[in-house]
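Write out this protein's structure.
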Amino acid sequence: MIEVRHLRYFRAVAEELHFGRAAARLHVAQPALTRQIQRLEEDVGVLLLKRSQRSVELTPAGALFLERTKMILDEIAKAAIDARRVEAGEYGRLTVGFIHSSTYGLMPAVLERFRHMYPEVELDLREMTVAEQLDALVRGTIDVGLLRPPASDPRIRMIAIFEERFLLVVPKGHRLAGAASVPLARLAGEPFIMFSQRQSPLFHSRIMRMCENAGFSPNVVQHATQIHTVLGLVGAGMGVAVVPETARNLHIPGIRFLRIESAPDPVHVALAWRRDNETPAVRSFRQVALLVAQQMQSDRCRLVQEEGA
C-alpha cells in the first residue's frame, strides 16, 4: 500500500537526483530511504528511478509520477492548513440573518470588520423579521441571527450586544422642534405615526406602554413597518413618532430628533445562535460583533456627553 511518507521520500529523491542528499534532506538513513523507494516501485509496479553508480535519473513513468506526487502532497498540505483555519473560524461558510433596522449602522460595521479579519469565510446574508430568524435558527437554515430579544426557545442562546435609546422625532416646523428634550406627556393629542403591531410588535408594544406611562394613549393616524417609512411620514408633516436611536443614521430631511425626558428603557440588538451549533465561524462572528458593538457604544456615549456639555 502506498503511504504518504513514500510519496515524500520519492519527491525528495526525484528532486535531488541523489540518494545521499535526499536522505540528508529527509533526516533519514540512506539505506532506509533506498528500501522505501524500492517498496514504492513494487507497489506502483513500474521502475520510477534509473540508478547507476554515478547518477539517478527519472524514468518517463517516474517523471509522470513525480508530477502527480507533487499535486497530491500539495493538496494534503492545503487540506491540513484549511482544516486548521476552519477550526480557528477563518474559513468556511456562515449564514447570517438580520433585521432591517440593523442595516442603518451596526450590521454594515460588523460585516466590514468581519470580512477584513476573515476574508475566506463566505457569508450568506438574509434579511428577516425577528420571528423568521428564530424559526430559521431552530430549523438550522441560518447559523446566527442579529435581532431583538427576547427568545424563549431553550434551543437558542442569545446575548444583547447593543443598546439603543428611544428618541422623539417631529417635523422640522413643529412647535417643539427647537427643544433639546421634552417630556413625552407633551405629545398627548398629537397625531402619531406608529409601528405596525403585526410587523413590528416589539416597537409597537414598547411605545404604546411608554405613552400610557406618560398618561395618554397616542392618537395613531398612520401605521408603518420600517423606520425609514416612519421618518418619511413625519418629514411629510403627518405626525410625530417615537423611534430607536439608529434612525439618526438615515439623515432624512425635514425632521428633528429630540431626547425624551425621564428616558424610557432602551431597546437592544442581540446575537442569537443555536446551542448545538457552536461552530468556530459562529464564535468568530460573535467576537467581531461584540467588538464592533462595544466600539460603537463607546463612540455614541462620547457624542451624548459632548451634546450635553
